[in-house]
Amino acid sequence: MADRSLRGIRLGAQSLQSEEGVVFMERRATEYKCDTCGQETTLMFAADAEAPQTWECRHCGAEAVLQVDGASVKLEDSDEKVARTHWDMLLERRTRDELEELLAERLAYVRARRGAGDDPTRHRIGA
């Protein structure tokens, strides 16, 4: 029964929805210029959306700056929190000397376990 109901339709090739009654948002072109390589990138945003001040350059990966009336905008320093790494959070809880001591203890423990291969009841994988 399912074979008959899907006959003649290419699944995934075309949408079964029509564009009737769909209202598209107004869009505007936004330009970014990379100071590193000089390339200009044009992106489309919704007319009511706020464009970000910087965008990653497609050519060199540096930050391209938003262009308004042919001039680069002045970048604002925001009060946003900088993302902390695991290392930063670890250093908030322990000193570097404590971390080195913990590392030495764990390495000694791992080395002791590896050296305990004299146990005949213990089987190695792949050996």
Reading the helices and strands in chain order gives: HEEEEEHH
Q: The biggest beta sheet, please?
A: 5 strands, antiparallel
How much β-strand is present in the residues?
A: 15-25%
CATH architecture of the domain at 26-72: Single Sheet
CATH class of the domain at 26-72: Mainly Beta
Shape designation: flat
CATH superfamily of the domain at 26-72: RNA polymerase-binding protein A
Unreliable segments of 5+ consecutive residues: none
| Rg over CA atoms | 30 Å
End-to-end Cα distance, whole Å, is 56 Å
Please give the number of β-strands: 5
The pLDDT mean sits at 82
Helix count, DSSP H or I runs of 4 or more residues: 3
Indicate the percent of residues in helices. 25-40%
CATH topology of the domain at 26-72: Rubrerythrin, domain 2
The SS-based structural class is alpha+beta
Question: What is the secondary structure topology, with strand pairs?
Answer:
Layout: H1 2-5, E1 27-34, E2 40-46, E3 54-56, E4 63-68, E5 71-72, H2 86-93, H3 96-115
